[in-house]
Each structure stands twice: as C-alpha cells, then as structure tokens.
Specification:
With about 170 residues, the chain is an all-alpha fold. The longest helix has 25 residues. The protein contains eight helices and no strands.
C-alpha cells in the first residue's frame, strides 16, 4: 500500500502538498486496519491479527513489536551483515540520486513512478515485516535490476505508446 501511494504521488505534477503526503501515509495504514478488522470479524486467523490478538494495551503492543524485531535480526550472521549494509547503502544512494538514476526514462513517467513506489515499498516492508533483512535484500536487488533496466534506455516497440501517469 505504501509503495502504491508513493507511486501515485510521484505521478502528480509539481511538489505534493502536506495534505497529499498525510493522506498517502494514512490510507495504507487504514487499509491494514480494515484488513485486520475483517479478519477479526470473520475469525480468519491471519498472522497479523493472531500476533497482535493478545495485546491488551500499548505496553503489550510494544512488547510484540520488540519481540518481532528481535526475531527479525536473530538470524543475521556470517556475511549477511555485509550484504545488508551494501543493500542499505544502495537504497540510500537510490534515494539521494533518484532523479539522475531515472533520467534516462524521463519520457516514461509511469515507469519512474513505479520504481519510486517500489523503493518506498522496500523501505516500509523492511521496517514493518518480521523478515525485514530478507525483505531488504530481495527488494534492493530487484530495484538494482529495475534501475539497471531504466539506465539501459529501453525503447518500446513502435506500436506501444509511452504511458502517462494520469
């Protein structure tokens, strides 16, 4: 949801307003809350609601978050810290140099927005997922491939027009 929201914002002309940014942050959270509510009402037993189901208040919720974070980093060993550091550095570089990296595809704003949204999805997924390190590695590699493709100056077949964002 966060990646989709960022992709939509990236398609907007000009600089987004504070209201647009706030809506982009709140709507994915509201979507997750709605999914959790549907799961509780239908007794679906999804992972998220079963994990948070025993939380009786903010203190318990923080305990759940801390436990999930500990589980997320517990398997980091060997050369994985180096790989994670490289992936995080690539993600940071991508954020800082986004315009220059995606300049070869400026005629494809939807593709630029998609890559920007994917970057946001990797960041949010890494933070929110209890498999954050794996999420970061897979996401950073996927973005590296996407940006590599973008930098290769892809040319569409003659019969397929460039798609606008809107």
């Amino acid at each position: 949801g966060a990646g989709g929201a960022v992709a939509v914002i990236a398609c907007l002309p000009g600089r987004p307003s504070g209201r647009v940014i706030a809506l982009a942050a709140v709507i994915p959270l509201a979507g997750v809350a709605l999914l959790a509510l549907i799961d509780v009402v239908t007794a679906g037993g999804a992972h998220l609601t079963s994990t948070l189901g025993g939380a009786d208040g903010p203190g318990d919720l923080l305990d759940v978050v801390e436990r999930r974070a500990r589980i997320s980093v517990s398997g980091i060993s060997g050369t994985l810290p180096l790989s994670l550091a490289l992936a995080a550095a690539l993600m940071a570089y991508g954020a800082l140099r986004r315009r220059a990296l995606l300049a070869p595809i400026e005629q494809y704003p939807a593709l630029q927005a998609g890559i920007t949204g994917a970057w946001a999805a990797v960041v949010v997924g890494t933070i929110a997922n209890d498999s954050g390190p794996v999420f970061l590695l897979i996401g950073a590699f996927s973005l590296l491939v996407a940006v590599g493709y973008a930098r290769s100056r892809p040319q569409p077949p003659e019969r397929i027009p460039s798609l606008p964002c809107v």
